[in-house]
Design goal:
Layout: H1 3-27, H2 32-37, H3 47-53, E1 60-64, H4 87-97, E2 103-108, E3 112-113, H5 121-139, E4 145-150, E5 165-166, E6 170-172, E7 181-183, H6 185-196
Parallel strand pairs: 1-2, 2-4
Antiparallel strand pairs: 3-5, 6-7
Family: Belongs to the glycosyl hydrolase 1 family.
Protein name: Klotho
Organism: Felis catus
Length: about 230
């Protein structure tokens, strides 16, 4: 948390979100970090253009998930940033940075291996985490999130990674003739989530604190082959 690291993080967000969000939600002009680094590429807005641009969005449309080309970037273009599933932090930052706009999460998800079939526990874990972080941002941080959209409906061709990963709620057998769609575990979870409109206060959803009995046994198991 040095001043330099904070400035680099801000610059990263400026180049990704601020490029569009600052002109629309703040003052009609590009972020200073972009103007300082790309002054020869960015156009200059007139005062009339700034007034015309500002306030032209009904809500803040946020797409959040792994950038599949992230590993292909040159290191200096990453601004020392890492991929992170911390959606709540980003929602809070957008809320503070852009004057508390209404936020609609229009695309959100993660990915799993292309060998994963219908039992996609990892994807379901991320989906639950993202939705829970959205709820925390609303209830605990006061962020005005008005909607959530999971990405994506079905498995597909994922840019330079092709069919080596899957991101859909429905499994597609790409080798079959009819390409039949089959719901994954995550699709059934998401269906129940929508039916209940979130996580109702059921006993199984509540956090539990406490200690185990004094005679409770803890241990570690290991596998090895002993050769004589």
């Amino acid at each position: 948390m040095t001043d330099h690291s904070i400035k680099e993080c801000q610059k990263s967000l400026d180049f990704v979100l601020g490029w569009f969000a600052k002109p629309i939600f703040i003052d009609g002009d590009y972020p200073e970090s972009m103007k300082n680094n790309l002054s020869h590429l960015l156009p200059d807005f007139t005062e009339a253009e700034k007034k015309f641009i500002k306030g032209t969005a009904d809500f803040f449309a946020l797409s959040f998930g792994p950038t599949l080309s992230f590993q292909l970037l040159d290191p200096h273009m990453k601004f020392r940033q890492l991929e992170s599933p911390s959606l709540r932090q980003l929602l809070s930052w957008i809320d503070l940075e852009y004057n508390h706009p209404q936020i609609f999460i229009v695309e959100n998800g993660w990915f799993v291996s292309g060998t994963t079939k219908r039992d996609d526990a990892k994807y379901m874990y991320y989906l639950k985490k993202f939705v829970m972080e959205t709820l925390k941002a609303i209830r605990l941080d006061g962020v005005d999130v008005i909607g959530y959209t999971a990405w994506s409906l079905m498995d597909g061709f994922e840019w330079h990674r092709g069919y080596s990963i899957r991101r859909g709620l429905f499994y597609v057998d790409f080798l079959s003739q009819d390409k039949k769609l089959l719901p994954k575990s995550s699709a059934l979870f998401y269906q129940k989530l929508i039916e209940k409109n979130g996580f109702p206060p059921l006993p199984e959803n509540q956090p539990l604190e406490g200690t185990f009995p004094c005679d409770f046994a803890w241990g570690i198991v290991d596998n090895y082959i002993q050769m004589d």
